[in-house]
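Support request from a user on the community tier.

User writes: "When I paste my structure tokens into the form, the page sometimes reloads and wipes my input. The last time it worked, I copied everything first. Here is what I submitted, just in case something in the input itself triggers the reload:"
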């Protein structure tokens, strides 16, 4: 036997050992804290009828999902146990599903949004959230939380988080309490020493984090954790005082990214410290997740914060926020139509939806946090949007999965934002061969059964499940999976299955006396573009049909 053959045999042996290790690791974590037995590649053990027709089996499936996704929510993996801050994620070995060598020891406010939102739900008594938050079986978790009950674990994490946020503001007061992308260690958030995020701050991500922190503060107050609630409310008030100075550019424009000239100089009496980036201005004119910061400015920024920044008519400036958005014409109605002849619709069938940027599921983030679905028109439109998402995959392109911005599997590299549905989007998409399990979360918000059915169909693919839950993405041929596990591409699934934190935020808006302002604003702006009844939603959600081909290695 030649040297080449020997090397080939050794390589095959290594691959076999890695796969065996993966399967062994899957089977090693069988017993949850509730006494239930779990195996990590559980999707293959269920049938579509189990999920779609059998409530008991469906709950069993959900319990498995929460347990295994919960293995990402471990100190040292999903977040830092000392500072409480999220890590963006971790790379994985795409063959074994085991953790690789590269820890994403950095994060962003959007990751904090997900974590804070789930912590709020757990503290609010959501049993599914509590199952996820306390599922981790790592040695680090056992050591860190020994003797603590589930509520005490949540309070421990929230206490560490607020201490990290407070420390950040003391060290870098020029950020106004807002966070950029940052490095994470045991002491908290650490400024990148160079590059864009050393002196820039994102608006969209902070808008997401703000409303999750509002949910946390609300539940803490309701549960009589008064001191901790006060600390979170102090941070929210700091954001409210500074948001106009840091992000508002005048004439209704909210900066997507702000450049800070002096990161050690506080915002008060200092509006000239905040400018558009050198690379050019870009504003949050979208009707998607960027709107969360716009609503915080409208509902929380006090009049004196406007006047301090030389805007003498605060009420008019609040109106200007929406006038500018209307002028950008991003809120548009469109139709998904011209389905293939094989679809079970008449040739004239179409469904009215809101035009997406890429029509990525990621764009629906605002529904996780604010009670948009209270407005009947919004509820009808949201249902149509998510029905169209399922119709596109099932009938338009016969795909086994759903589409959202994600880190793709090989041979693609980097982050692939341009994933969605090109027929109903402003922008073209990069590919229709890369699906992601988290593409179902927005569906699950309004129909958990259908959402779980799509997740099941994607997770059945070879190597799509491992000891840290689902892979972030897969290819439709079933041969490759995404090389990372992250908050965005995994835990939005969990949050969406629980309906997000909008119910908690609704309580806060009503207490603050601004719920009607929110409701009326949404109703007014969307009624300019959409008229009921919206067509096409009567066909209902589609369930998956095409499987992901199964390849073990």
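"...and here is what came back when it finally went through:"
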């Amino acid at each position: 036997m030649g040297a080449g053959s020997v090397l080939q045999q050794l390589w095959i042996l290594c691959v076999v050992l890695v796969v065996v290790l993966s399967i062994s690791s899957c089977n090693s974590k069988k017993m949850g804290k509730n006494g239930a037995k779990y195996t990590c590649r559980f999707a293959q053990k269920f049938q579509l009828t189990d999920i779609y027709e059998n409530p008991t089996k469906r709950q069993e499936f959900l319990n498995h999902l929460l347990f295994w996704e919960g293995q990402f929510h471990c100190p040292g993996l999903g977040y830092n146990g000392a500072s409480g801050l999220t890590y963006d994620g971790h790379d994985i070995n795409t063959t074994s599903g085991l953790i690789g060598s590269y820890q994403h020891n950095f994060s962003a406010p959007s990751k904090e949004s997900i974590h804070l939102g789930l912590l709020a739900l757990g503290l609010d008594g959501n049993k599914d959230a509590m199952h996820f938050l306390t599922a981790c079986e790592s040695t680090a978790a056992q050591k860190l939380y020994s003797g603590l009950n589930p509520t005490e674990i949540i309070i421990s994490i929230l206490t560490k988080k607020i201490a990290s946020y407070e420390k950040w503001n003391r060290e870098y007061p020029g950020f106004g309490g807002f966070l950029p992308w940052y490095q994470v260690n045991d002491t908290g958030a650490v400024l990148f020493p160079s590059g864009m995020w050393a002196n820039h701050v994102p608006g969209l991500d902070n808008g997401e984090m703000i409303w999750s922190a509002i949910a946390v503060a609300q539940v803490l107050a309701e549960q009589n954790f008064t001191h901790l609630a006060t600390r979170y409310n102090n941070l929210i008030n700091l954001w409210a005082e500074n948001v106009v100075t840091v992000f508002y550019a005048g004439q209704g424009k909210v900066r997507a990214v702000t450049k800070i000239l002096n990161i050690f100089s506080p915002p008060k009496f200092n509006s000239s410290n905040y400018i558009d980036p050198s690379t050019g201005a870009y504003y949050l004119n979208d009707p998607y997740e960027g709107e969360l910061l716009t609503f915080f400015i409208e509902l929380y920024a006090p009049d004196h914060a406007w006047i301090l920044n030389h805007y003498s008519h605060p009420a008019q400036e609040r109106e200007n926020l929406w006038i500018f958005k209307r002028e950008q014409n991003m809120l548009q109605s469109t139709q998904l139509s011209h389905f293939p002849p094989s679809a079970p619709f008449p040739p004239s069938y179409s469904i009215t939806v809101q035009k997406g940027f890429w029509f990525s599921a990621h764009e629906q983030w605002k529904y996780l946090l604010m009670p948009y679905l209270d407005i009947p028109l919004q509820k009808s439109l949201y249902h149509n949007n998510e029905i169209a998402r399922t119709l596109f995959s099932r009938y338009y392109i016969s795909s086994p999965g759903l589409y959202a911005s994600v880190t793709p599997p090989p041979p693609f590299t980097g982050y692939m934002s341009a994933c969605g549905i090109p027929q109903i989007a402003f922008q073209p998409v990069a590919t229709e061969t890369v699906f992601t399990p988290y593409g179902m979360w927005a569906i699950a918000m309004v129909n958990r059964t259908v959402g779980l059915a799509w997740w099941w169909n994607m997770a059945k693919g070879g190597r799509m499940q491992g000891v840290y839950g689902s892979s972030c993405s897969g290819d439709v041929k079933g041969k490759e999976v995404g090389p990372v596990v992250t908050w965005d591409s995994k835990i939005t699934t969990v949050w969406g299955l629980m309906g997000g934190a909008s119910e908690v935020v609704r309580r806060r808006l009503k207490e603050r006396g601004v719920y009607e302002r929110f409701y009326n604003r949404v109703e007014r702006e969307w009624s300019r573009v959409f008229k009921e009844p919206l067509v096409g939603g009567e066909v209902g959600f589609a369930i998956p049909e095409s499987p992901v081909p199964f390849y073990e290695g």
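Agent notes: The reload is a front-end session timeout and is unrelated to the input. The chain is about 45% helix and 10% strand. The longest helix spans residues 3-28. Escalated to web team.
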